[in-house]
User: Fold Spore coat protein from Cohnella zeiphila.
Amino acid sequence: MNLLPLTAKELEYIADSMSNEDLMIKQCTAGAAICTNPQIQQVLNHQAQVHTQHYQSLLQCLQMHQSLAPTQPQS
Assistant:
């Protein structure tokens, strides 16, 4: 697989997406913790797992491209 370095805009988009996924994980987990309806609690726990998988996928993408990133600041 030939990977190209990520652009600054792509890195920004991935960072924003990871931040959003992290927020969704926290919100679903918090909601499940206070929920008294077991069915809704199950859905919230499942959604927390889904968002955790999304977060991990985004992190993997960054790690795959890490070797292409410059080691020195670009001028």
Observations:
- The chain has a mean pLDDT of 89.
